[in-house]
Design goal:
This protein has about 130 residues and is mainly beta. It has one domain. Helices cover about 0% and strands about 45% of the residues. It has no helices and 8 strands. The strands form 3 sheets. It has a 4-stranded antiparallel beta sheet with strand order 3-4-5-6, with no helix packed on it. A two-stranded antiparallel ribbon has the order 1-2. About 20% of the residues are buried. Bound molecules: calcium ion (2 copies). The site of one calcium ion has 5 residues, from loops.
Length: about 130
């Protein structure tokens, strides 16, 4: 998966899904938001992997409300239902990374999100991108 600043000239967030041995289909994640990171895991406990992403935060002095979104897995391209998130949660702070695992071992996957509770001093590459 590739995430990043597609509004600054980069590509939209996308991933490559292997459809037959050695062949990969590019799947673009249709969003106008700035995705920070994502994981694929079967969090809905059905037969299909789901896409879990975090988005938003600060970018180039503009603030975007951070969110967690879960897109449910489906059995055909683009392999996730991007028409609406299966689950959405507003996050209090910029979220840069996440992990999905079952820490309390109740057979339900848990989502752990790394957030920065202060964005000043955060840089993403160029000095002009520091806050
Ligand atoms: Ca699922
Ligand atoms: Ca759990």
């Amino acid at each position: 998966m590739t995430f990043g600043d597609h509004k600054q000239g980069g590509t939209k967030p996308h991933m490559f899904v292997q459809t037959t041995a050695g062949k990969f289909e590019e799947v673009v994640i249709p969003t106008s938001k700035w995705l920070r990171n994502g994981r694929v895991a079967n969090i809905t406990l059905d037969a299909r992997p789901d896409l879990i992403v975090v988005e938003g935060g600060k970018r180039s002095r503009k603030y975007f409300q951070p969110f967690l979104h879960i897109y449910k897995g489906i059995n055909h391209s683009p392999y996730f239902d991007f028409s609406r998130p299966y689950y959405t949660r507003k996050l209090p702070n910029a979220a840069y990374d996440l992990e999905v695992l079952d820490v309390n071992q109740d057979s339900n996957l848990d989502i752990y999100i790394s957030q920065a509770n202060e964005s000043s001093g955060y840089c993403s590459g160029k000095r002009s991108m520091c806050y």
